[in-house]
C-alpha cells in the first residue's frame, strides 16, 4: 500500500509517519519510484505498536526505539523475546538502596514471591525491572507508613496472577511469533489504563456495597 | 510536636514542609511563640498523604490541593466522601466524543458494566471520571485494532472486583472516618505502581509457564 493508505488505515497523519520513518521507528518501505514507496501489513502493525508506546505509554522516541529493538532479537527463544521486549519498557523510579524502607520492601517482596510460588521471579530477582519497580513502589508505602506487609500484598499478587492469564490469552490470539511479541508489548502498555480505570470503578462499586 | 520532629518522623525536610504550609496543603500548626508552632498526629498523617499524591502520584500542587479539599466536604455521607476524594484524582485523557472509536468503546464498557453487575457504575455512568478514563483507554485499544470487546474486558473487570475488595479491606483497617477517607485516596494512588509491577512480574511467570 502507499503512504496515503497506510495513513488512512492507521489514523496517523502522513507527516507523523514520515517522522517515524526518519527516526527509525518504522522500517523503510519498498521503493517503487523516486518519490514513492510501498508499505505492507507489517508496517501497519508496527505503526500501531509505535502509537501505543508513544501516545498511550507516553514514551520518548528514544525509549520506543529501544523497545522495538528488543522485539527483533533473534538470539532469544519465544519466552525470552516476550520478556526482553517488556523489560525494555519504562518501569518508573528505581529503589534507593541506601533507604531502610527499600531494604524492608525487598524483604516483603521476596517473601511475597515465595508465598505466591513465583519461582521464575525468585530466580531472576533483581535483574528484572518489574521486580525493582515493585520494590520501589512498596518502599514508598513503607516510608509513608501505609500497610504493605506480605500479608497485605498477597491478595494483589493473586489478582495479578489472574490478570496475567488474561494477558497471555490475548497474546495467544495472535498466530505468528513476531505478532505475539509485538502484541505482548502493546497490550502490556494499553491495558494499564484499562486496569487502573476498572479498579477505580470497582472501588466505587465495593464502597457503595459496604457504606452506601 | 515541633517542626523538627514533624520533619524527622515524616522524612520530609523542614523547607518542604514550610512550602506545603504556604501552599495550603497542610493546615497551619497551633502557634506557641512568635516563631514556633505545634503540630499534631493529624499533621503527620496529612503530610504523608501529600507526599503520596505529589511524589508517587506525580500530581501538581494545585491538583493535590483539590483532592485534599474534596476530603473535607462534610455535606457528604461516608461512601460519597470516599468517592469524591478519589474522583478528584487525575484520571488521564478524556474520551474524544467525535471519534468513532470512543463510541464503540462506550458501547463495550456499558455492556461490560451490565455483565459484571456493576449497578452503581451503570447508575453514575458518564459522571464518573473513572468511567471516562476507562472509555478513553478502551477507545485507544479499539483505534489501534487490538482486542477490546466486552468478552476480552470481562476477566479484567473480575480481577478489578477482587482488587477493590482488597483495597476496601485496607481502608477499613483504619478506624476513624477521616482516616479512612485519607487512606482511600493514598492507597488508590500508592497501590497503582504496586499493581502494575506485580502484573508485569506475573506476566513473566505465566509466559515462563507457557513458553519457557
From TrEMBL, chains A, B:
The keyword rRNA-binding does not apply. It comes from the Bacteria. Transmembrane segments: none annotated. This is MerR family transcriptional regulator. InterPro entries: DNA-bd_dom_put_sf, MerR-type_HTH_dom, MerR_fam. Residues 1-70 form the HTH merR-type domain. Keywords: DNA-binding. Gene3D superfamilies: 1.10.1660.10.
